[in-house]
Design a protein that fits this description.
Length: 153
């Protein structure tokens, strides 16, 4: 065997090693992506559960939310309580919308967000709240919510 043949065998061996490495890295990247999506799912579930616990456990917030859903008049205190609840809810929505924009949001939470927004938009309280607080959110999120409002949810 001459040096040219040995070199050719080495090049073939190197090419095979590169292909094996690329396949391995591709699988690792897929696993990492799955892991990140599961972490965002878990994080978003925690956010929602905290909001629900707040509605259930905090005196007045659950009642104020229920009254707002029915369209009943709210006291100043109830509006104040709902302001902070809506901030928490819309912070979670903003996070989900951003994760969706970078393809890191899971479809389950994204769909949940999409289906629950119309209920909030129907509240008389929301019509007062959004214009006061919309500028506290990123432009892409404001545009997203504004477009959803125009399209009736």
């Amino acid at each position: 065997m001459n040096w040219d043949a040995i070199g050719a065998v080495g090049e073939v061996g190197g090419a095979i090693a590169v292909v094996i490495t690329l396949v391995y890295l591709s699988r690792q990247l897929n696993e990492n992506t799955k892991s990140i999506k599961l972490q965002t799912l878990d994080s978003t579930f925690r956010d929602w559960n905290e909001c629900l616990a707040e509605i259930h456990n905090t005196n007045g917030v659950g009642l104020a939310y229920s009254k707002a859903l029915k369209g009943d008049p709210l006291t100043d205190l109830e509006e104040h309580e709902l302001t902070y609840l809506f901030r928490r809810i819309f912070n979670t929505y903003a996070k989900l919308q951003y994760l969706k924009s970078v393809n890191a949001a899971d479809p389950f939470n994204t769909e949940s967000m999409e289906t629950s927004l119309p209920y909030l938009f129907q509240m008389e309280f929301f019509a007062k709240w959004w214009p006061l607080y919309r500028d506290r959110y990123a432009k892409t999120f404001r545009d997203y919510i504004d477009e959803r409002i125009q399209n009736n949810g």
